[in-house]
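Here is an idea for our session: we take a single protein and study its fold together. Start from the sequence, derive the backbone structure tokens from it, and show both lines together. Once you have written the record down, we can walk along the chain together:
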Amino acid sequence: MPDLTAKLGLERQTAYVLKAIYGGMRSVLREPVRERIAIGSLSELIDYAGLSLNHETVKVLRTLYLDRQNGLISDEESNRGTVDHLPVYPREIVRRALKLGASAVIIMHNHPWGDPTPSEGDVRFSHQVEHALSVMNIALHDSLVIRKKGFASLRSPGRL
């Protein structure tokens, strides 16, 4: 709450209302998907992902599990780290994909410091996940770094 009142100059009551709305939206986003949302383009994906990652102050890994028509089976927060570290394990992503019967996966995380340029660790991790998924005939469609002022797709520049 201090962030909203001090940085933005909002009254306490307004800050509480905004915080409650934000919490409610996050809950809605975590609900099981009843009607599968189709992820049809990169811009749709960025719009969708930005809702959950743009305002995080620590690194968060989200994993989208997709069916054969790229319908969203599940959108899950796979892990939460610190400002500059995010412990992640490819086997957990593969295990969950198998349990859900996913045909494809999209992984995405944020850089809280603002620069969406993928680090060497981001690229290495994405390759590890892609390899682990490929053993089970599950595709890694993309690995994204999301930030308010941009994003980086590891698939677009051919890093994957």
Notes: Residues 1-31 form one domain. The chain has two domains: 1-31, 36-153.
